[in-house]
Design goal:
Number of helices of chain A: 5
Structural class of chain B: mainly alpha
Strand content of chain B: under 5%
Number of helices of chain B: 26
Largest interface: A-B, 99 and 134 residues
Number of strands of chain A: 8
Shape of chain A: flat
Order of helices and strands of chain A: HHHHEEEHEEEEE
Number of strands of chain B: 0
Largest sheet of chain B: none
Order of helices and strands of chain B: HHHHHHHHHHHHHHHHHHHHHHHHHH
Largest sheet of chain A: 4 strands, mixed
Radius of gyration of chain A: 31 Å
Helix content of chain B: over 70%
Distance between the termini of chain B: 100 Å
Helix content of chain A: 25-40%
Strand order of the largest sheet of chain A: 4-1-7-8
Oligomer: heterodimer
Chain lengths: 209, 634
Amino acid sequence: MLRSLAQWCRASFVSVALLCAAGALADGAAPAANAPAASTATAPAAAPPAATAPAGASGGEFKSLDQEVQSLKTEVVELNKDLFVLEEELLFPANTQIAVFVSLDVGDFFAVDSVTLKIDDNEVANYLYTQREAEALMRGGVHRLYLGNLKVGKHELVAFFTGKGTHERDYKRGATLSFDKGIGAKYLELKISDRVRKLQPEFIVKEWE
Amino acid sequence: MRWRRATIAALALGALAGRASAADEPAAPAAAPAAQQASGTLAPTRIKDLYYGDVLFYFYQDDYFGALTRLRAAQEKDRVSHHADEAELLLGGLWLSYGEHIEAGKIFERLLASNVSPSVANRAWYYLGKIWYQRGYWSEAEGALRKVKGELPPRLEGEKRNLLAQVLIQQGRYDDAIAELNGWRGSPDWTAYAQFNLGVALVRKGRMNDAAALLDGVGRIPTSDEELLALRDKANLALGYAYLQADQPANAKIPLQRVRLQGVQSNKALLAVGWADSAEQKYREALVPWMELHGRNLLDAAVQESYLAVPYAFAKLNANAQAADYYNTAINSYTSESARIDESIAAIRAGKLLDTLIANDREGRNGWFWQLENLPQAPESRYLYHLLAGNEFQEGLKNYRDLNFMQRNLAEWSRSLVAFGDMVDTRQKAYEQRLPKIDASLSGVDPKALQDKRVELESRLNEAEHGGDVVALGTAHEQDMWARIIGMEDALAAQPDDRSLDETRDKVRLLKGVLSWQMNESYKARIWTTRRSLKELDLALREMEKRWLRVQQARDSFPNDTAGFATRVAALKPRIDALNTRLAAASQAQGEYLAGIAVKELEAQKGRLASYQVQARFALATIYDRAANAGSTQ
């Protein structure tokens, strides 16, 4: 009796050890969640199948859900596009629409903080840029600062730019443009660029056809 | 134009490269032109469509959903025609960044074969292969990775090789995986990862000799790099356990003893070293690592098992009293640990785990590049450490998170759509109220009659000019004077014989001559002035006609426009509702799926504890049985 129990006990331990061994083979390679960036990058590749279980390993359920999510993403983006277009056409019809964009070219001599926009002496926009947005401008993004409606005829736009110039100095400049608004959308671009020869920023308002 | 010139580089794949570099190559930010040149991206371009720049503005802020929506809208409204090809490639990159790999794959398949530089195409295929690997689309992942032509930048190349090998291993194609990695020499770390992954796969396949050579090699790497040290520990541990499984305890101890004592793998190594000693009947030696383990945190599976192993060794050494004490400790510890796991399972089933994980992400971003980086301080997190870090959970969590984001997005649009509907109704009512006034204004002006009058004026002018009719162009006063002179002349002509009127006749003749001279003098200038006035009248008439027509057209088209908007609003509502229903169902299913795998993992842990507990009870019973038998024998 004693012997048989002892044998059972040992056998059961061995089986536990083997269970654990299988776990070690799996877990042993699992990436640590707090591993440094490079190791995070390697995690999918380095991890053995059962440990990081690339999604498909658990069968069709993940894929089936994933495919439904993919399909939903496509449809939601298309729906957003339709709603986005409807909103614009409803609120800003093409024949009265005016859009004012801000762009930054290079930006060595000026770091934009905010832009204030006046049309016909009415302030229509006053936008404070976050660091993330300012960086997006520096990388070549163009910000649609204002979208509105304007009657056909002559108008005047005045823009004030505030930010930091060279040597971290506070900098405020204005730019102005008189323009004709005809039938059809009007696009204006407030361009901030570097005038290298003068080591100064330059502020221009450009009309787009 | 430095950054402008850089834009396309950061586009389809620059974006990917940008994000990827942030993670993979912190020393070489992808947005830097130098890095782009080094990595070989698309040719520089200038922004030719403002709306293309508008898309980039959101894209550079990692707002892939916002950028996608704007790009699709700009494409539909033909606002990015100067960047048509780039926009399409960007769209593919955005879909991929947003985690929509199926659409991204279709676009890349269509575009990358022809008009894109090889380095850009290679990056696109690499990232597509990676997302497909992470989501378990093996054949698709292999197809994409094999489309990479030539070498990627060194780090990506290493990862690509490993991904490809993993994809092959996942499909059971071990020999292909070996062939893929054989002879390849990348950076030392990637080569080591490749050998390790292959070694583990070969152990599973039962090819112990092949595996041992690979794992032993990784387990002996001379390094001081923390990441490689961790990998070395993993390789030694895996090899040690493989030897234990193969019933070769003496061989097992060699790699196991190479595992660092304070590393992440040390618990498992200590346990295994004890088992290797135990397998050789060296119970006293086995107690050394097991006792060390026994003093560590019970959360770890190896520590849990040590609670059983220690008394087992004592029992083997006939130290029955100590064995019994340790078994009792084990039973109590397993019971309390099991209760804590139950609490965690209940919390997960109540949806707390996912809520906590999502709430932990403060940035509110979405897409494939998002990664859960900090585990919440919830009790269940510590049990699920490995599960939460794994691809299956992470990728599923991204989907769950994106579904939640889309639900919030549609909820906002639902509210806006109600406002749009109200706006259309209000406009319609305002139109109906203003219509009588508009009609009255329109009917009060007859553009044709005005035009006829203008024609008559011109013909009168022509007649006056051809006939040299200076009077016709005289001022009102002159014409009045002229008429009076003519009247006087007529009156004088009626009295031809009255000589007393001769003086008057002379005066009238003089007046007529002076007036005629004056009008003749001004005639040419008056002709010119009148012609100019006629031209101004033409302009005014044309402007009036245009305005009249515009008002008329607006009046006529307004009902149709409003009805068109009303139809669009009405058609969008059921689309939102239908998608909302599907999103809710998918979100629930995804949540249940994730909770399910978490609960499964916890139940497995609980099952293991239960099994340990049963074994502890049996062993305890055995000791008591032995003690009782010994007592009765005496």
